[in-house]
Write a structure and sequence with these properties.
Blueprint (H helix, E strand, L loop, with lengths): L1 E7 L2 E6 L6 H12 L4 E7 L4 E6 L6 H7 L5 H6 L15 H33 L1
Length: 128
């Protein structure tokens, strides 16, 4: 069974169940995928059953790699493992925002501690 685990443009990681613990299958998968035009590097890991494929996105679509591994419905399979969205960088906070956040956290903790201190004797009394 073939399962795409992670995919970003130019690199994909697949889990191939038949690969786990079988060096002969790893060699076969590596030669089959390496023969595809546009694939630049293939790394098969027998211990985990994963295959990491680096490819030139200008020359090949990721579906071609899945089809070479014998998966008939490669497009829908890859759609479930869409490329990861780009990370957004956090906007730096102003000093006032930072201080307001810290004050709110301290007030919340103070309220929670007081509530716990009041509820604990009642809880012990209820158990006894």
């Amino acid at each position: 069974m073939l399962v795409p685990v992670h995919h970003v443009r130019g690199r994909m990681r697949l889990h191939v169940a038949a690969l786990k613990g079988c060096p002969a299958e790893a060699t076969a998968v590596q030669s089959r995928v390496s023969a595809i035009r546009g694939v630049t590097q293939v790394d098969c890991r027998v211990l985990t059953g994963s295959v990491i494929v680096h490819y030139d996105a200008a020359l090949i679509e990721p579906c071609a790699v899945l089809q070479a591994l014998g998966h008939a419905d490669a497009i829908s399979l890859l759609a479930r493992c869409s490329p990861a969205p780009a990370r957004r960088h956090k906007q730096p906070r102003s000093r006032a925002q930072h201080m307001a956040r810290k004050a709110a956290q301290r007030i919340l903790w103070y309220a929670l501690e007081n509530a716990a201190e009041r509820a604990l004797p009642m809880l012990i009394a209820a158990v006894l």
